[in-house]
Amino acid sequence: MVVDLDTCTGCEACVVACHAENNIPTAGPDEAARGRAMHWLRVERYWEGEFPDARLKFRPVLCQQCDAAPCESVCPTYASHHTDEGLNAQVYNRCIGTRYCANACPYNVRFFNFFNPQWDKPLHLQFNPDVSIREVGVMEKCTFCVQRIKAVEQTADAEQREMKDGELKPACAQSCPATAIVFGDLNDPESRVARLFESGRGEKLLEDVGAQPKIVYLKRQAEV
Amino acid sequence: MSEYADTLVADLLRPLVKTSWRFWTLVVLLLGVVSLGVGSFAYQVNTGIGVWGLNSPVFWAFDITNFVFWIGISHAGTLISAILRLVNAEWRRPVTRCAEVITVFALMIGAMFPIVHLGRPWLFFWLMPYPTERQIWPNFRSPLVWDFFAITTYLTGSSLFLYLPTIPDFALVRDKATGFRRRLYSILALGWSGTTKQWHRLESAMQIMAIAIVPVAVSVHTIVSFDFSMAPVPGWHSTIFGPYFVAGAIFSGIAALIIAMASIRKFLHLEKYLHPVHFENLGKLLLLMSLLWGYFVFAERLTTWYGNAGSEMTVFWQTQRLSFAPLYWTMVVANFIVPVTILSFKRTRTIAGCVVASFGVVLGMWLERFLIIVPALGHKYLAYSWGSYRPRTPEILLLVATFGAMVLLYVLFSKVVPIISIWEMKIGEHPKLAHEQRTRDEAQAMWRTQP
User: Is the confidence at residue B323, as pLDDT, over 80?
Assistant: First the structure.
């Protein structure tokens, strides 16, 4: 996945789409104030400079699907593990809730179900049937919309062809009005993400921590 | 039997024989405290761990602090007692059992927390390797699984280490008891009759255990420290944590031992056997550990500060100057300034002085663990996701209940088992058998109750 920080306007449509797609509970104002809000994807906001010369920077942060993920090695039950496809998967049924993965994660993108999930009405009427609901005591996080990946894979398999670039969009990428989020195969040199990564603006978040994140951020250049 | 041995047995068995109303009041009171913790846990399981103050990103706080703290306290016993046995320090005799009991109970309390703190505690057995139709084993790369093995090994070892030298005392009580008690202590005494062969075997077994338990104890707290140092969290990812944690554990363990011994001495009227010299010696050990602790903190802080890495320094200043500074400096006072001041001078190294210093150390060491865990988790790399932490009632109750449980277990134990080893006192020279210098064989012969 590539996130273009130049085009991101911080509108948070991706956050809403992610909630809707992945049945993420709403914590409510009290719990959110306690720091229990759950957003698999958040738009971080950083101010630079002093008013009136302040400049606002946005950075959507989600699970970086690390290749050397610190969350995976510390999980005692393999609830957090690496799939053959390179996804950083979370098996809710296997999670016993040590929360060690969330502590080890340098990006703070893992979320814990402190209570059984609930939704503000009428959100409880629009669950996505392809995504399981998580119960109290388990950890959850961005899956790269694994349900969509599986669906596109199955279609491609049925039609006996390879997946096409751009055929697959996670909810965040699909809903981004500025197309700041692009999803694709970094191993395919012809793909749009690979070309954006090679554009010279590509960088990774907290690369020196050594988790080998997969998400590429395109550095901000615009002066506005 | 000599007159000295008679009074010794009478004195040390008195808590088993005489029970005053004070004992029952204390037990009821402590049961009340413990049930608060049990109730709090039930509430937490029923509602969710959200009843604690934990949040994102501070996913561990009181729970793991209590875990590390109590495992630390457990190093009192076995380690100190094993070392004193190995170097054959004569003054150890009335001290060892008090210490070994602390180990077993503190370990039981500490080992509960990795289970209590789980989001789904009813599935704790997934941490263990067991044959299952799903053919999944625990992840052996996870420090939490190392914890499981380290703690179960240590608990087994220290229970044996406590039990072995208690066997002759169980036999003594068995021979003096009647009815149900006689049957109970017969089982516990494992058919001990005091033959030379049995003594020989007991001594070999004790020797083996004393040697084996030292590396186990060191490895346990090293592995506990790995829970932190293995994760790429600023303030955690440090190579000094292994020895630093072991030193801290022994430090808090000695403090707990001094408090326990002073209480036993006072409430069980054992002034004749626990002398000021025991506190003096343990006080010196505590002083040594306090200085060692100060050295470790200095080394750890200095290298962090000098290295000046951005994310490390954020956590560094949180503890040194910002929101966690009041707790940090309380810790320094309680762990270093107070004990070093009191224990450096012979005049203040009295029983009371040692107890005051020990309370400081217990408080300080709890804070130390808290200050390692919480500021670091609250200030990881991305400033946008920083957070803080404030405890809530259920976790405070749980903390209080652990202390209640420790005292309760200790009180009950000293009611059924002589808290000072009778046979070791008999064999030993301390306090000296004034006019009867005996050889070891004679002393053993004096003890032998059955042919």
Answer: yes
Size of interface A-B (CB pairs under 8 A): 142
User: B169-179: per-residue pLDDT in tens?
Assistant: 999 999 998 88
Which residue has 């119960």 as its token pair?
A: A135
User: Does the beta carbon of A106 lie under 8 angstroms from any beta carbon of chain B?
Assistant: yes
CATH 1.20.1630.10 is right for the domain spanning B2-121+137-162+211-447 = yes
Token pair belonging to B4: 């000295």
**Chain B positions in Cβ-Cβ contact with residue A63 (cut-off 8 Å):** none
Helices (H), B190-236: 196-229
This prediction has a pTM of 0.93
List, in order of start, the domains of chain A with CATH numbers. Answer: 2-223 (3.30.70.20)
In chain B, % of residues over pLDDT 90: 79
Question: What's the rounded Cα separation, in Å, for the pair B215 and B348?
Answer: 34
Assign A46 to helix, strand or coil: strand
Structure confidence at residue B132 as a pLDDT band (50, 70, 90): confident
Phi then psi for B87, rounded to 5 degrees?
A: -85, 5
Residues in contact with A45: Cβ distance below 8 Å, sequence separation at least 6, in sequence order? A10, A56, A57, A58, B384
Single-letter amino acid, residue A109 = V
Output the pLDDT for position B439: 54
Judged by CB atoms within 8 Å, which residues 358-377 of B form the interface with A? 377
| Beta partners for residue A56, in sequence order | A47
Show residues of chain A in contact with B48, CB under 8 Å: 113-116, 136-137
Angle between helices B241-267 and B77-86 (to 10 degrees): 90
Range with the poorest average pLDDT among A35-39, A142-146, B446-450:
B446-450
Q: What is the C-alpha separation between B389 and A105, in angstroms, rounded?
A: 18
List the structure tokens of B105: 């109970």
Nearest chain B residue to A59 by CA distance is: B384
- Using DSSP, state whether B138 is helix, strand or coil: coil
- Provide, as residue numbers in chain B, all residues whose Cβ is less than 8 Å from the Cβ of A44: 382, 384-385
Question: Nearest CA to CA, how far is B80 from chain A (Å)?
Answer: 32
Instruction: Using the structure block, give the residue that is written with the tokens 């703690």.
Output: B151
Predicted complex: ipTM over 0.85: yes
